[in-house]
């Protein structure tokens, strides 16, 4: 089976000459979750808008379920659901009518049983007759998800779906996303909450200034860019490191009570055993050792800082 999303050398250039996207290529398989990370203005929303048919590209092609988004746009759009950043709902419309209306826009027949199941899965069934203006911000965002899923799309775009949502509600929405993946829905997620990407994504993509810097499986990315830090707690403070340990990559804490050693988890030898032996030879008594792993946020920041943003569109 071919990819559900096939993006080939996609570009978007505005009349001013600014590139919002530069030669982006990406394939996604059915039931996959991709977290697309990047600073503000990196091109995340532009990419989603092009795939959804809201913005016209200036180069390249996009196919969804084998359908070209420009030449066979109607079939492509029917496979797509979009949850936008902005909460735009008719304030005096009931929740159930709002979702029914969106389903009708895609030419789907009425299916109250499915809509009930959908609203129950999003904890909206009890609010079905409430007007959207009466809902909290988190509930309104759930309505957006219900609208996006009303026609049973194969691909779902979540553009900052938990912005402004409290922690408890955010975790409930994560579970909804996992359930959708289990049903075979392909999901592209943009978020500023990197723990979301680290917790849910199969692959991570990093975009900057319209260029897709990398797309890698999450575990591979963590292994390739992630480093571990060994923290060595001492019984007695050190005024300074012994001369022959200065080249070992050790860092001494300000109070002299801890040593820090960063190492690559992929290296054949980490050097930890040798290092601890050298400390013993110097009469440095070790009280405790612990390790910490780089988080996705650390990795993301290192990529962004190595490639500082310069006003991307």
Automatic annotation (TrEMBL):
Entry annotated with the keyword Nucleotide-binding: yes
Keyword Amino-acid biosynthesis in annotation: no
Matching CDD domains: ABC_DR_subfamily_A
InterPro entries in UniProt: AAA+_ATPase, ABC_transporter-like_ATP-bd, ABC_transporter-like_CS, ABC_transporter_ATP-binding, P-loop_NTPase
Domain ABC transporter as annotated: residue spans: 5-234
GO molecular function, one term: ATP binding
Keywords on record: ATP-binding, Nucleotide-binding, Transport
PROSITE patterns on file: ABC_TRANSPORTER_1, ABC_TRANSPORTER_2
Name of the protein: ATP-binding cassette domain-containing protein
Organism this protein belongs to: Paracoccus shanxieyensis
